[in-house]
Amino acid sequence: MNDARTIDLNVLVRDNILHMRPYSSARSEFSGSAEVFLDANENFRDFLGDLGRNRYPDPLQRELKARISPMFGIPAEQLFLGNGSDEAIDLLFRAFVEPKEDAVYIMPPTYGVYSVFAHLNDAMIRSIPLDEDFMIDTQQLLSAAEEDRAHAKLLFICSPNNPTGNDIPLEVIEQLLQSFPGIVVVDEAYQDFSDQPSALTMLEQYENLVVLKTFSKAWGLANARLGMAFACESIIRVFNTIKYPYNISGPAQETVLAALDQEQSVRNEIRELKRERDLLAERLKELPYVQRVFPSSANFLLVRVSDAQRLYDELRGQGIIIRNRTHEPGCAGCVRITVGSHAEMQRLEQTMRSLEAIL
Ligand SMILES: *Cc1c(COP(=O)(O)O)cnc(C)c1O
After folding, report:
1. Which of 96, 178, 199, 258 sits at a 20 to 30 Å CA gap from 211?
2. Is 157 helix (H, G, I), strand (E, B) or coil?
3. With left for phi above 0 and alpha for psi between -120 and 50, is residue 353 left, alpha or beta?
4. What share of the chain in percent tops pLDDT 70?
5. ∠ CA 81-85-86 to the nearest 5 degrees?
6. Which ligand 1 atom sits nearest the alpha carbon of residue 214?
7. With contact defined as beta carbons under 8 Å apart, do 92 and 99 qualify?
8. Residue range 89-132, pLDDT digits in tens
9. Cβ–Cβ under 8 Å, residues 320 and 314
């Protein structure tokens, strides 16, 4: 497969947004050096010292983008930074989905935020469940989208998928990029933990591709709230038009800039964590009440046990919190366990072993 796709934003973007101009803040109208700033109604005093907390942050986060863009080999003009990936997910709805008319395609079991923002933005939800191996039923998906061609605006593919942990093969993603009528979003929150390459390799070819990444998982910065969206320049321009003017706080920008100096340690920790994950998977398989440990390309394991609620309650009683996913479609009897430190995994394993008698 070696096709390419271009998009016509005049057709895809909602009318009210197509003709919008971004809010022009003081900080975006003047950028340069000066000694006296009296343009933004800021306080001249920084009560915390001289951290610059009295000044508005760069609305386009140029310094941060200049550091992130070479790391992925994608031009800064094709990068949007959001208050978590959640902001980018919300903006996708606002930009492309006409409330009550347009549809988003979601494939459960998957990340719950897609449907939360779908409801918030009054989108029609087309739910195409993953099959028993948690793979996409491309035929069903594409024929449903074909019938609904004018309104099939968004498709969310989570790879590796949360909570199932499996990769969606790049060939499948490419097939959907070629045939889905609207925007194909690939959420790669966990891609750092996978052996499969990123969908970013297809960004140049497919203008209908949006790739989401985050600093919340592999980079250990869930607290800072920084997500990334990569797409063609014209989509990024739309995002920049409709985002909150100062969507990334100064402290968040500074925190991520500091973390970028630690890239090598982050890479090393990822390797360590993958080893810990695979070790834990092997150990859990030995427990009699564990029926299945699903293969994982992420930093968590989906585990099917004899009684998910009981396991959850017992672990909780011992001070260990996992996630019960038993009520998610296709996940009956399943819990999701995040991979923690070696010591935490030993404690988990010991505690789970001690439950053999009652589970
Ligand atoms: C954790 C997670 C994210 C990250 O969200 P942030 O808002 O960036 O913290 C995105 N997508 C999926 C599927 C996740 O599990």
Report:
1. 258
2. strand
3. alpha
4. 99
5. 120
6. 8
7. no
8. 999 999 999 999 999 999 999 999 999 999 999 999 999 999 99
9. no
Inter-residue contact 329 to 112 (CB < 8 Å): no
* Burial profile 160-169: b = 16 or more Cβ within 10 angstroms, e = fewer: bbbbbbbbbe
Q: What separation in Å is there between the alpha carbon of 242 and the centre of ligand 1?
A: 21
State both tokens at 235.
């989509």
| Pair 49, 39: CB distance under 8 Å | no
Closest by CA position to 182, among listed 203, 161, 209: 209
pTM score of the predicted model? 0.97
Q: Tokens 């074909």: give the residue.
A: 146
Per-residue pLDDT tens over the stretch 209-242? 999 999 999 999 999 999 999 999 999 999 999 9
Residue 269 half-sphere exposure, CB side, CA atoms within 13 Å? 13
Kindly state the tokens that stand for 36.
């006296």
Q: What angle do CA 93, 99, 103 make, to 5 degrees?
A: 65
pLDDT digits (tens, 9 = 90+) for 304-321: 999 999 999 999 999 999
pLDDT digits (tens, 9 = 90+) for 164-203: 999 999 999 999 999 999 999 999 999 999 999 999 999 9
**Do 229 and 210 contact (CB within 8 A), yes or no?**
yes
Residue to probe by mutation, ligand 1, list 91, 113, 157, most atoms within 8 Å of CB: 113
| Nearest-CA residue for atom 7 of ligand 1 | 84
Closest atom, ligand 1, to C-alpha of 161? 13
The closest residue, in CA terms, to atom 5 on ligand 1 is 85
The DSSP secondary-structure symbol of 5 reads B
Show the ligand 1 pocket: residues with CB < 6 angstroms. 84-86, 111, 158, 162, 187, 189, 214, 216-217, 222, 227
Are 230 and 199 in contact by the 8 Å Cβ rule? The answer is: no
